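Hallway conversation turned thread

IA: we were arguing at lunch whether anyone had actually written out Peptidase A2 domain-containing protein end to end. Turns out nobody had. So, for the record, here is the sequence (669 residues) and right after it the structure tokens. Reply here if something looks off.
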Amino acid sequence: MAENADLLALLAEMKKSMEKGQEEMKDRMEKGQEEMRKGQEEMRKGQEEMKNQIQSHVESKVGEIKDHVNSCIEKIEEDVQSVKREIGEVKGEVERKIEEMEDKVQGKIEEVEDKVQGKIEEVKEKVQVKIGDLEKRLSELEDRPINFPANPDLTYSRPTVKSLTFDGQTSWTVFKTQFDVVSSANGWNNRVKASQLVASLRGSAAEVLQGIPSDKLTNLMTIENALEARFGDSHLTQFYRTELKTRRQKPGESLQVLAADVERLMSLAYAECPQDVRDSLAAQYFVDAIRDEDTQHATRLMDAKDLKSALAYSMKYEAAKTVSKTSRNSCCWEEEHSSTKSERDFLEVQQKGARTEGVPDNFSQPGKLMNGRLTGRRLPFFNKAPEEGLKVSALCGGRNGLYLEGSICGIPCLMLVDTGANVTLVSTDLAQKLKGNFIYTAPNISLKTATGEKAEIHGKLDAAIECGSRKFQHKIYVADITDPCILCLDFLQKFNFMMDLEKNEIRTGGEEIPLFSASAEDSKLCSVLAKEKTIIPARSECLIQGVPEASGKFRYAVTDFPSQVSQKGVLVAATLVDLKKEAIPVRVLNLDHKPKTIDKGAVIATCEPVVDIVARPQGFSESLRLPSILENLEGLNEEQRTAVKELLQEFQNLFSISDSDVGRCNDSA
């Protein structure tokens, strides 16, 4: 119990101490709250003071700004008033100027009106006078008898030009131009022109009228459109442009004829171009067509702006070239003649001395003189001319000559094979183009033909002659011959040439070179005739079976477009053919919108002989690989790649694999 009492006493003391601590804590809290209330009051007072200070400062600043703005507004108002005053002054000045101009214009108008009125009065007076004169003349004419003869000097009869005819064989464009001139001279209207045009049609041109309705035969535009569609050249523009690009001067054709043909083709190929463009193009095509290289080069450097200038310059250049050539030959003849004369005088002195020693007159023959002081010496024989016996069958091969194609010093030319000649000759024109060292010969050396005709030898040179794929070095002479070159018998024997007249070929070193006969039109062409009548559909191509016109001239040839063909809008593909076969396939293209008919026996192509046939230097490998461009194709599987390889292997001869293959072909049609 005592322990409980102690415990209770202890608890009572603890309670008292706790109550006492609580009282102290309460007092402290009250004191802290009081202090906080005092701090808040002080803070509130500071905020009020700061607010009052800020408000007073802001009010002072706002007052200053208001004063500044008011002063600026007053200044602006003063400036605006001054500007208004200036505008008013300018407006008054402008109004005064306008009034002055109105017064001046009004004065001018009044002056012009007065002048116009005066002119009108004058014109009225003149018109009245004219009217009076006319009335007087009319009254006089009324009083004149009806059968009064007219003055023949005052009568005029309109000339009548006779209309032309058109049969479809001539140019429709030319006829239309002539018809327009005639109709204008005769004063025809469109209805009369239509009737006259219908009356002027003949032959195939008149057949066009069958496709025109009867009620349209008086419509000029309908008739002209029908004739233009049938005989016009507007759809052949591309054909004429191709012909113009490939036009070249023919042997013996003058520059004037060439220029006229170029001008004709220009009018057909570029009719829609302006005149200045046509003149420039015509000059370029004319220069490209000139055959002589020197004349072409000189004319090209002249840079002519039109065809007439190019033609005039090229003709002047050719004339100057001919004069220079004549002068040069004359000078060379004089030099050779003077040197030969001095040699001849020296030889006569030697002959006189030899006769005094008892030497026979024929001492000029090669050998030794065995008499006197000339013993053991050879006399000079300046006049020895081993070329005195130069012979040739004819100066021109003509129709019966056999030719082969070759080149001399790199210049291609036709060579006449003449077994009756003992010297190889080149023409003077060709010799001027050669780069070899030209040696002038004495003027007493001449060339003699089988008929006794003589030609002068101008000189000689050592040249490289190429026949087929072989080259030969041989001495040739320059003379005035018609053919570019004549191959003689000594050349053929020296290099072991063999001629086969049955096959029309010449062989050397295992190589066959075709020979062909000359003709009046083209010495190396052979025509191919249609085997049967064929119709070529519009805008399409087909193979036509043909036969050679004359077999035996040569065997292998290349087909070309015939110059004498009458069909327009038809092209022929170039193909290697064998003329020994029964039928020759010719691929023909019809560019026209209408079908073309090729009659049996008509000329469909010409054949030009193949210069040389050389075996392929290397063949395709059996293990043919695809090109790199095909290896990279993603769309090909292995089976398709194998098919491409087999295709290339089968047609390997159709593709070139080296530079030596270009221009050659292993297959013939």
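OS: looked through it. The chain has a mean pLDDT of 77.
IA: good, adding that to the notes. Residues 234-318 form a domain with the Non-ribosomal Peptide Synthetase Peptidyl Carrier Protein; Chain A fold (CATH 1.10.1200).
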